[in-house]
Structure formats: structure tokens, C-alpha cells
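[Meeting: bench + compute handoff]

Bench side (C.D.) handed over the final construct sequence. Compute side (W.E.) agreed to return the predicted structure before the next meeting so the bench team could plan truncations. Sequence as handed over:
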Amino acid sequence: IDPPTTQQQQQQQQPAKTMAAMRILAIIAAFFAQPSVSKHLRKPQEQLAVLAVHSYRRDCGLAAAKAKLPGAGMSPGSIEPFTTVLKDGFYEVACVADYMFTHGDKFGDHSDEYLIGGVSNVSIVHYAAHVVKENREQMTHEVCFSFCRTVPDMNFFGITNGRECYCMTYFQAMADDDSQCEEPCDGNPNTMCGGKSKSSVFGMHACQNAAAELAAAAGKMSELNGEMVGLGEAVNGVASNMQTMAAEWQTMLGNAGDPSSAALMQSAKEFAGELEHAVGVANKIDGTIGSLNKSATDLQEADLTSSAAMIDAEQVVQDMEEATTQGAAAIEELESLQAQASPNVTGQVNASQQYYPVMYFVDKKYDSVPSTCTGTAAGKPMVGSFESCAAACNADVHECVGFSYFPGSGTPAETGLCFMMSKVQGVTYWAGCSGAEASAGEGGAEASTGGGGAEASTEEDEEDEEDSATGSSGEETQSEENGPVAKPPWASLAQLAKRRGLSRNLRQRSASLSAVNTGEVKCVVKFAEFEGDTLKPDPSGKCDVCLERATQADRCFA
């Protein structure tokens, strides 16, 4: 019996090859049916770090599960690449010795080894065969995809030896050595493009829903933008209120000779600047989103089957996704700042009743006198009512023990500034404010003298601007029982005359603050924290909770 000819051997192998090809197609179909397999949906120009929406494959599947698409690639003269976009995404599938590269090449260098004509009657399509040399780009995954996505009936593309790109309806792994896909891509050495005998294989898919994706991305972006803009307006309102009140109070307290409290107002102005900056970032994103919405609207009317329009659409979708990400980050930042600057604590009733004036624990004669204090900050400056500030301090269980409150203009003040503290270090109680003398008693009306004490009791409402500019608080006298007596800053009649000359000017500068209810200015602490204790300054330094100073000011800040 004569041995079978080569043609007879090939004919005998056809059924086996047909079954093998069908099994491979079934495996591929099962592979793509699994929802958890990740993939990249990137346009050719995107960076590797930009990942596409993973739900594309679950939503629209992969064309690899079709029949063998007989005739695909078999008419190379009719292929017009870069004309019509047929696929909108790709992802890496495998690194294999691809049977198709050698035995599925009907018209290329391996045409003499072509064996699948009777099996599927398809051929791979080479990038180099359809792109003239002067127009070829250095090979990357994206370059190969941008070519193969426009070749009809192609579901995969492969790259081998770092630069050879080809398209195919399906791929088929065959036995080979144990080498890997370790050849860097000519156009991007950071990625691999096959090996000497292996191909990096990528799957492509086509949802043909670019318009829907464009609309969905625009809708998501616009929805988020609405939230960001509303939040930005709210934070901007808080920033404006904080900036205005802090500036007014800084002037008032500086003129009154309370540089420590004036420094608190400076911190509030700086925090208001942080709020304004965050709002500015959000406004910039809002402008970008407005431009992208216009671009998306224009593209809805375009022919998205054209390569140029599809590339534009993909760029806009990418930009919208980036703007959406930036908007989400801006919202997170705005929410964080808003929570710090304008507390919205719920579930508390009459929280302010838990707070007593700090002077209650120093000298009860002065517990109803307006007071300001400084200490270790337990948070950022806040805008809110006295009640809301008390609730916020309660919410900060482990840090806040009290706060200094400064109301806004108007009576009663619904909104003011508060500064939460984890430790109160010093207090100034303003015995010279209207009504304070009566509440403080006869003893409180007497300021300690010492080289001009009589003048101090009659002229203490007049501020020396030079003292204020240098941060001097020497005019604040202290009672004998609360600590060392401070000498008044004016020690001569010349200094006193100078102060009298300035008083009218200073009153005019504070005219806009005349509506402030001085009785609402108070430094308070949690009663439960200090019940049974005294906060009276202890010169010995043995008292951990005691104040470092308690200064009586026989004048008023307003």
C-alpha cells in the first residue's frame, strides 16, 4: 500500500482540525461569558493607567463566539483601514504561540504554510501589508488596535516580536517552547509586544453604543456637577460670613487691646481662605464640565461610525470621566471643609445648657461678664449659633472641653464665630461692658491701681493704636486675687492726652460693629468636665487644669 500523499494527509486531518477549532471557539465563548474577567477599554491615544468600563463585556459580549466568519480577511484588496470604526475596546487575553500567525496567513510571508482554508476559510490581516511604510507608527497595543478595529470581521489582534501586528477572527494556541512575551513594544518599551515565537493576543469587542455611552457619561457628570455646585455655594456662603465677621472682630479686639483674641480672628480669616480656595477649584471644574457638555451635545449629532468622530467621542468620554472624578474629589473636599466650618450636629437638645462661663470656675462674681479666652485649638474656627457650637463641642467627645463664642451683628445673634478648645489657657473678662459693673458687684468696679489707677477706671475705653499694632495688652489690669497686678500703659498725662485724642477716631472705626450684643460674647466650658474644680490661676504651677491667666479689663471691646 502506497503511503498517503500530503494532500490526503491534510484531508484526513480536516475533521480533527475542525473539531479542535470548534472546541477553541467554545472555550473562548465561555471565557468571555464570565463577568469577572477584567479588560481595558482605552482609545488608542490613552495612557496605560486609564482603565475602561469593565461592564462593556458583560453588556455586549464578544463577537468571538460567532461562527467562523468564512471569508474574513480573504479579500485584502477590499480592506480600507481607518475608515469605519467597528470595535470600541480591547483587553489582553493571552501570550501564546499562535497557530493563526503561521497557518492562518493566506497572503503573507507564511502563505505557503496556510492550512485552514478548508476549516474556516479566513485569513489574518497584517498591519504592514495595508499601511505604507512612511505612514507606519512604532508599534504599541493602541496602534495595532486602531488598525484592527477598522478591519471587518476581526475579533482579535496579536503582536509578535515587538512590532508585527496582525488581526484575526480567532486565535489558536499551539505547543511551543517555554519562552514568554518579553519583547518590548517598539513604540512603548514599558509594555510587552509578544516574543520571538509568541504573540501577545488581545480581544476586541463592539457594543456599537458610542452615542449611548456618551450620553451616559454626560448624564453622570452633570448630576455630580449639580451636587458640587450646590455644595460650593453653601461653602462659599460660610466662607463669606466667616471672613466678614472675623475681619470685624479682629478690628474690634485689636482696638480693645486683646491681641490673643485678635489672633483667633486671624486664624478664622485664614481658614475662610481655605474654604474660598476649595470653592474656586470646584468652580474651575464646573467650567470644564460646561465645555464638555457642549462637546458631547455636538457629538450626539455626528456620525459615530466614522473613525475621526469615534476618536473625538472617545476623547470626550475620557475627559468627562476625568472631570467626574475631579468633581467627586472636590465634593469630598467641600463636604469635609463644610463639616469643619459649619457644624450640623443633630440629635442634641439644649446642648448649651451643659456649658458654664469659664469665670464661674474662677470668680463667680464675674460669671455673667462678657469674656474671651484662648487655648489649645480642638478644631477649625466655626460659623454657627451658640447652640450649634455647643452641640459640636459635645460631638467632639475626646477633645473639646469648651469654646470661645463671638456673635455676629444683630440682637439676638443667630450666627457667630466659635473656637473650640481642648484646653483653655487664659481668659479676659470685660468688666467695663454695659451692665457688667452691676452684675459684677461693687468689687468688680474697682480696678487695681499702681501708678495711674484712677485714670485707668475712667479712660480704659480709649485705645492706643500704637499699642494695638504692636500687640500690647498692657492696659489690661488684673485683680489682686487673680494674679500679679499689671501697670497701665499710660504713665504720664502726655500719654493720657494722646489716648483721649484717638478715642473719637476709634469709635468711628468701630461704628459698623455697634450692633454686636456684648452680652453674647463668652468663653464657656463643659460643667461636667470641671465640676468641683477651680480654674483660678495657680502661681505655684501645681494645678494642671488651672488657667495660666485671668485678666480683668475694666473697659469694653465695643
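W.E. noted at the follow-up: The first helix runs from residue 6 to 33. C.D. will use this when planning the next construct.
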